[in-house]
Design a protein that fits this description.
Layout lengths: L2 H40 L19 E4 L2 E4 L16 H9 L15 H4 L4 H11 L13 E2 L4 H13 L13 H11 L4 H4 L42 H10 L10 H8 L10 H13 L9
Length: 296
């Protein structure tokens, strides 16, 4: 074959096979990132990793924990203080198992138990989006405890005694009450705030979503079970959806505190949720057993 014929054939192969493959792969990647961006919004913009009025996702928020104080971590792509040097698998292991790349245990303040029930397709998409977060160099303060060996000894013991890890579905439910339960329990993580905790930070599962007099930041958190007098029985599904997307209660009042942050986001939040998902959450909340628990 003459050189000109070879290069002509090579160009034809490149244009017919190589370029379409590259374009297809790029399109798949963009679709995954876009899906991950939506999951990130459903997760309240991971607001716990942002201090109010500070750089989004750079960590440093202070949380009271049993026997001490912990701080949220930097989840931007900074290579020294964030996740820039973490592989996808390392981020996945931290999210669903609570294990850092160096083998160190993540404190169960990070809701990896709940994330363990997230469908892999959503987790992979979420990680793909997190990989796009602008790097911010900001080191979070180390956790401070009143007693030694909390992370190395007491955390594994706590997990063995109290942790409830989940088996994730092969695919995320697409609609209805199953979709609502999936979002509430494993993506939006409503129970993290609305289910009270006993001593040692153990969730009181007998009061599932029944509110807490001292939430993660010490504030009162309302009962969102369908109890007639202390919960949201009188709320319509559209009113629940409006609160999630707009932050407005049926009486016209606006939500406050951490709920306001997860709705309005950093910059993504529940406000970016499509109405179908908001209504699925509403339908699930209307379906759970009502629990009497007055929160002032």
């Amino acid at each position: 074959m003459k050189p000109t014929g070879f290069y002509t054939l090579l160009g034809l192969v490149f244009s017919l096979f190589i370029i379409p493959t590259i374009v297809l792969a790029q399109g798949v990647k963009e679709d995954r990132v876009k899906r991950g961006q939506y999951i990130f919004a459903l997760a309240g913009g991971c607001a716990c990793h942002t201090m109010p009025e500070k750089t989004p996702h750079a960590g440093g928020r202070k949380f009271p924990v049993p026997l001490g104080t912990a701080y949220s971590t930097n989840i931007t792509q900074d290579k020294e203080t964030g996740l820039g040097n973490w592989s996808d698998e390392e981020i996945l292991n931290a999210m669903v198992k609570g294990i850092r790349p160096n083998g160190q245990r993540v404190l169960p303040l990070m809701p990896y138990e709940a994330y363990s029930g997230m469908a892999e397709e959503d987790l992979r998409a979420l990680i793909a989006y997190m990989k796009t977060l602008k790097p911010v160099r900001k080191k979070s303060p180390p956790a401070k405890f009143q007693v030694p060996f909390i992370r190395s000894l007491m955390t594994p013991m706590w997990l063995k005694l109290f942790a409830h890890f989940s088996t994730p579905p092969k695919q995320a439910p697409k609609s209805g009450i199953k979709r609502g339960k999936y979002l509430v329990d494993h993506v939006a993580l409503c129970g993290d705030c609305h289910t009270p905790r006993k001593s040692l930070g153990v969730p009181n599962r007998s009061l599932y979503l029944a509110g807490a007099e001292s939430g993660p930041l010490g504030e009162d958190v309302p009962n969102i079970t369908p109890d007639e007098n202390t919960g949201i029985k009188d709320w319509s599904r559209d009113q629940i959806a409006d609160l999630l997307i707009k932050g407005t209660k049926p009486d016209g009042d606006e939500v406050q505190g951490l709920m306001d942050e997860v709705i309005w986001g950093t910059p993504l939040g529940y406000k970016d949720m499509n109405r179908q998902d908001a209504l699925a959450i509403a339908d699930y909340l209307k379906s759970i057993p009502p629990i009497v628990n007055e929160i002032n």
